[in-house]
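Protein record
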Amino acid sequence: MSELVELIHRLSNRTATIAAVGLGYAGLPLALRFSEAGYSVLGIDIDLNKVKELNVGRSYIKHIPSTAIQSAVKNGFCATSEFEQVAKADAIIICVPTPLGKHREPDLSYIHSTIASVAPFLKPGQIISLESTTYPGTTEEIIQSSVEAHGFIVGENIFLVYSPEREDPGNSKFETRTIPKLVGGITPNCLKAGVALYESAVDQVIPMSSARAAEMTKLLENIHRAVNIGLVNEIKIVSDRMGIDVYEVIRAAATKPFGFTPYYPGPGLGGHCIPIDPFYLTWKAREYGINTRFIELAGEVNRLMPEWVVAKITTALNERGKPISKSHILVLGIAYKKDVDDVRESASIQIMELLRDRQAKLSYCDPYVPVFPAMREHKFDMKSLTLDEVDWSEIDCVLIATNHDVFDYELVASSASLIVDTRGVYSKVSANIVRA
């Protein structure tokens, strides 16, 4: 009990050191928030370029200004790639990726490697919080088993919680501090330590009955979105065949003050959460003999969207006497959503690959992604054009794949001979605008 009391005391009076492991779209904002709240913060990442950039006060994430990094560095924030530094920390927060494998099975290799790197340097009285999205039971099966193998007693001399990240990059209405924080502990003492960890950094902490319940809640949040996006994408296809404007329908339905939440169709799912997280539950559910048909059906609909968009482009070009082969297509936006620089699982890039397979000539414009990044599954040797650089006479089709606010849509509408709009940017279709 003394370990718990001492830990809570250090967390409460902000003399604790916080270590954030994984400095990406979830880990970096969290590290900055704890620094802003007055804690000594240590950032750990295996990417040496990230470590270097942070220590000189530069941000590598578009919506996080370098001034925020500089302020944290001034307050003592330091980044490192050395896992042994966790020995200096009172709290270790793990924010590493949880992708899918080739057969859409959970890939927990980053969690496994992280805890394997951290465990030899743990000390009594620390709290470990897992924030990576995963299936219920991960905190117990991986984190707890690892620390217990190193001789610790969870709930007595070390404390484990699961607290899902809820970042929404590019959303100016919410920030790390204002997004309610869920916390589920392995034991009651773990929960007490978890609440003490987060309550000084965020406005509202919501205790949960267990780590498993918190893990399931995160999956429900993202499955809810995936299923509803799948539904509205299916409605989009039906409406298109019937000659109905799906955006008009959604706007009209949204006037109902109860019982309806508007979701909007698009070219497919993107980002690290919505295309991936539902399949963590479908995989785990099979262990219990359950087939999650509803979730899998929504996933199938969403996965087919890039193919549907390409079919719309092909038809639109054919109607103008142009084969898709050798047609020059300008893709507006390759980030997975508007006003961010994150291209993970981007539907835009999936569409680009399908177009390339059909021998289309491709260019792209995305001020948030000036150079096509190195990716494991997608390779394009390209740089972003600006709209001022575009020779419109050379462009056969403009595909609006990501509706960044910075684009001059009036210029595009007046300059392009054909626009395929997957985001409902234009309120009405016209001779040169096709919805997809």
